[in-house]
Amino acid sequence: MKLTSKKVHEQPLYQTHEKELAQRSREDGFSNAQDLGTIDIDELDQIRGQIIAYNNRIATELIERIRESEPVFFEHLVADLLTKMGYQGQNGSTIVTPQSNDGGIDAIINQDPLGTSTVYLQAKRYQASNIVQRPAIDTFYGALSRVHADRGVFITTSSFSKSAQETAKGFSIVLIDGIRLSGLMLKYHVGVQVRYHDELLKLDEDYFE
């Protein structure tokens, strides 16, 4: 006997399976949820691509919002970000320096209670067209030298010129441009909230062996 889709759909086990799926969908708040068993790998890749595209749009909006903020807000933001990334350490501290007398350093992260390991930050809230040039890196390096620092992070909402990037490499200064900044903010949930947090599961075949 040829097994057709109609005959499969008439089987009691199949109908029970469909009813259970429908019930789960209603409980999850989706009345028209599609049976994931019919979704192939290409479609899953498309779903993932849509999520990435959505998050990229949020990242763009994030940078635009930051560019509209006050410079002091941005200084606190980058300090919050590096703290979330773990640079403060378990017992360290983060200090945003006063704007009037920061000596070219916008924030200081002490990675231990004694301050023997310290990260110095420079934050420039620029529009996209205002590209950070080499002189800004030279100035930041001068500020680092005055405090005998061996590490610095320069963060901007715009981008860096090629000469600025080359100079930073020579000075061991880490550069974070607007695109990388927004990506890190999404990753460490700074300035954003998780809208949905679902898991796509599959059977663990090893468990049943």
TrEMBL record:
GO biological process: DNA restriction-modification system
Pfam family, one: Mrr_cat
Domain Restriction endonuclease type IV Mrr: 67-185
Entry keywords, A to Z: Hydrolase
GO molecular function per UniProt: DNA binding; restriction endodeoxyribonuclease activity
InterPro entries: Restrct_endonuc-II-like, Restrct_endonuc_IV_Mrr, tRNA_endonuc-like_dom_sf, Type_IV_Methyl-Rstrct_Enzyme
Transmembrane segments: none
UniProt name for this protein: Mrr restriction system protein
Organism: Lacticaseibacillus zeae DSM 20178 = KCTC 3804
Lineage summary: Bacteria, Bacillati, Bacillota, Bacilli, Lactobacillales
